[in-house]
Amino acid sequence: MIQMSLRYALPFLFALTSPVAALELEAMTDAERAAFRAEVRAYLLEDPEVLQEAIGVLLERERLAEIANDQLLAVTYADELFNDRHSYVGGNPAGDITIVEFMDYRCGYCKRAYTEVEALLAADANIRFIVKEYPILGEQSVLASRFAVATQLVAGDDAYKAVHDTLMEFRGDITQASMTRLAEILELDAEAIIAQMDSSEVTNIIAANRALGDQMEISGTPTFVIEDQMLRGYVPADAMVAIIAELREE
Predict the structure, then answer these.
(1) pLDDT digits over 84-120, tens only?
(2) Can you tell me the distance from the alpha carbon of 84 to that of 78, in angstroms, rounded to the nearest whole number?
(3) pLDDT tens digits for range 170-204
(4) Is the distance from CB of 58 to CB of 48 less than 8 angstroms?
(5) 136-146 as b/e, with b when 16 or more CB fall inside 10 Å?
(6) CA-to-CA distance for 71 and 225, rounded, in angstroms?
(7) Geometric angle at alpha carbon 242, from 209 and 219, rounded to 5°
(8) pTM for this entry
(9) Are 72 and 65 in contact (CB under 8 A)?
């Protein structure tokens, strides 16, 4: 019994996640189970690489499950992601590939990704790019997003893009005074934008983005969705290029 059970060393390690292995253990007597466990322990001490292999298999299984779950989330919330009618749409609005970015103006990795995304859009004229204002890093993040959304509502998409680009490169404290100066530098109607910042419309847009992020289990920025592929965290431009190429081949 014990010698035959050595063949099931790896299933034993996965007993918590493998119903079949768990049932096999439950069918043993207490003495058989104790002997089996002792034999497995001796086997692993003699050949510990097996444990590393088992952990590797488990981690890969978890990685694939996470990818499958993210794809399901992207498909489930596709309409909210790609057609919400309030998010800024840049790049080529009729592009064959859509990239959505959940971003925060105070996020260092968002700022790092910004230059690469801009270069990607400049190099590939067939990408539709959607920005989801997702302020999660404190009051300054919220203030910046309110200002950007208010700008879009008051002055349109071109003005929003100018504000967005400036805020992504901004390094100082974000205050109402600094936002007022920004509007003046960009020759925007600062008074109208500031007045719009606390409106219910701005509040509802940011709340909708936060609700969508919660449903999609997004806890950090940047988070990218490229069609049905979800990328959590900073992703180099060359990795995005590879993903886009694969999607176009499908």
Answers:
(1) 999 999 999 999 999 999 999 999 999 999 999 999 9
(2) 10
(3) 999 999 999 999 999 999 999 999 999 999 999 99
(4) no
(5) bbeebbbbbbb
(6) 9
(7) 25
(8) 0.77
(9) no
